[in-house]
Design a protein that fits this description.
- This protein is an all-alpha fold.
- It folds into 2 domains: 80 residues, Homeodomain-like (Arc Repressor Mutant, subunit A); 135 residues, Tetracycline Repressor, domain 2, CATH 1.10.357.
- A two-stranded antiparallel ribbon has the order 1-2.
Amino acid sequence: MRAGSLGMQESLCHPKAGPLLVAAGLTACRGGSILFSNERSNGYGRGRPMPRFSMPQREPQEKLQVILRHAARVFCEKGYEGASIRDISRSSGVSLAGLYYYIKSKQELLYLIQIHTFKTIVARLEKRLPEAATPVEKLRILVHNHLDYFLEHPVEMKVLAHEDEALEGAFRKEVLEVKRRYVKIALGVFEEMQRTGAARQLNPRVAVLTLFGMMNWTYTWHRSETDPQADALAETIAGMFLHGVTNGHGNGSPRLVRPAAATLRNRRARADNL
């Protein structure tokens, strides 16, 4: 998707105490658990329609996690624009009224999925990095942390990759702040490698964003039944990033194929946000 300044102890809410989530009765507590203030003992009744498939009674924070998992699955299958709150209601077994008790909009659902994922990844990374003895070991930890989380959450990974520009306003701004912090950590690791002679004097931003490109699209080809799992996959990708694949015996420069102009504009727009 860890302790530290971006740890799960931070609120998952909107900036400035999260008025939208607070209005929905949501707060955050230590350790990342989500609490629901003024929780009613029964989310239905009083004329509210029962869901088609009744969801067993759960603790409030577990209910939100159920909703977010099903929302991610629906966004993954239909795309953010093609999905509706009614689709998420049918998938999760939570009535429309029940959904709106916890969240205010489809935008808020996408925001919660993205902010939870990125804050979890960054917090886990910040917790593990002090264990590293060298900058290269830090890079290997970064790669393993990223791939380990995303292989466990492939649906969320696809949503993050494909719905990168769907968030708007303050939601988008807050998620971008966490993503930029993540990139800043990676840049710091690479620059430390350069200072110690473990990496060539390449453009750090180009190198780091290339590494993220290698990691972020694994979901498009990775098959859990045949491809390496997190440990071996992280070692392979880190090794390719650190040493390349030719072992110093390449046969000249490869022919470069220039992407279409529209593709380049889209890539540049995304990179400029980081």
